[in-house]
Amino acid sequence: MVGGTRFYERKEIKDILAYLKLLINPNESVSLERIKKLGKNRFEKFKKLYEEIKDRLETYSTNEIIEKLFQNVDYLKLYDVEDVDDFSRLENIKELKSVALSYPKLMDFLEQVALVESEYSEHEKKTKGHSRQLVLMTLHQAKGLEFDHVFIVGVEEGLLPHSRSIDDQFQLEEERRLFYVGITRAKKTLYITNTRKRFIFGSQGYSTPSRFISDEQTSY
Question: What are its GO cellular component terms (predicted)?
Answer without folding.
Answer: cytosol
